[in-house]
Amino acid sequence: MGLAPPPVWRHAAATIPTDAVRIDYLIGVPTLVGRGVGPEIIGHFVDDTCRQLPDASAIAVSVQQANQQSWRALEKAGFRRVWEGTRQIDDPSDAGPRYIYLRHHPTR
To answer: What is the DSSP secondary structure assignment for residue 90, as one 8-state letter?
Structure first.
């Protein structure tokens, strides 16, 4: 691995290992939002990712600060907040105040 973090992550580079896997997710079924499936799905995805990429030291996720359901799901799935701030990016729907969450590889 050993890849440098993309520009969007450079604000938090001190807290995100360069070999971290960065993920994004969306629960697109409105009837499933708020029912506790997010942490379970995220947990399974992280476990599967760690099996497939055993050299990755951690999983990192960037989430909008206003999206409390999303960052609470991350916390319930074992992630911890390592950075907060505002970033400027081309996609206006993804710009603004963000949190970055990190979960270390369970076998490390």
So the answer is: S
